[in-house]
Amino acid sequence: MQSLYVEGTSIMHRLPARSKLLVLAILGVILFTTRNIALLSLGVLITGAVYSSVGLSSGQAIARLKPVLLTILVVALFSLAFNPWHGAVVALLRLTALMLFAAAVTATTTISEFIDEVTLLARPLERAGLVAANDVGLAVGLVVRFVPEILGRYQAIKEAHTARGIKVRPVTVLAPLIILTLRDADNIAAAIDARGVRRHVS
Question: Where are its TM segments located (predicted)?
Answer without folding.
Answer: 21-51, 63-82, 89-108
